[in-house]
Design goal:
- By secondary structure, the chain is α+β, with helices and mostly antiparallel strands.
- The protein folds into 2 domains: 2-82 and 257-281, Immunoglobulin-like, CATH 2.60.40.2250; 96-256, C8orf32 fold.
- Helix content is 19%, strand content 41%.
- The radius of gyration is 19 Å and the shape is globular.
Length: 282
Amino acid sequence: MKFHINHRTHYTYAAPVTQSFNELRLRPLSIDGQVCSAFRLNVLPAAELRHYLDFYSNFVHVFEVPESHSSLAVESSAEVTTTANLLDLKATSVPLNHLEACACFAHCYDFLQSSSLIHLSPEIWRLAVDATQGQTDVWQTAVAIMRFVHSQFRYVPFSTQVHTPMAEVLEQRQGVCQDFAHVMLGMCRSVKMPARYVSGYLYNGAADQLIGAQASHAWCEVYIPESGWRALDPTNNQQADERYIKLAIGRDYQDVAPIKGHYRGTKDNTMQVQITVSLVDP
């Protein structure tokens, strides 16, 4: 499938601010059957854009606005083609004891550890053990965890914030897509299954487009020995297929936030986000 994505974020400050430094992860990845064929990024006030690849090979833009300004606008547009290579949710892969070797793999190590928003506590381990009781296969264990999170946690918009830790979500038993992803990651890692956070967009709708922040999404990828990274979405209880557009991967939301930065000035500001995902070619 081919998509056009437009992502616009606008900040308005209650008083002029200065020395704004920003880091963006808005360029979709070209990886695992996904190709970003075109990308454009504009910021206002105008600033010089620099870019680099971070530790997880995400595309990062950085810019500074040192002079006084009362608003900041960041707008990206991209064209992305996606394909899907899915495993049957009923398929079997390899026995769980094959996970022992993953701790020695450089591409897995970080995704077996606690991170900024995910603490591998006895509570999350107990939850994972209960959810996967009787499972002996790696893929089926991952699917069982996805289904558990989907069934046991309520999707409640605005019930959490972007920096809400997994431990708080466990207490509330509710959240949004990033919280569902954090819980699933914690459960997978607690049973020694490498699991990483994915940020991106989800195209869904007969009108061929989604407008608004609900088009921004988060899901998980788990590492299956001999099969590689496989994407599961606990919010929707399904695999991530060709409707999912990947922006960045990391240990949790902190690693992949689309926009983050700091400035000198008032704390009072408002943020508006508008995202449009349009189907160009099925």
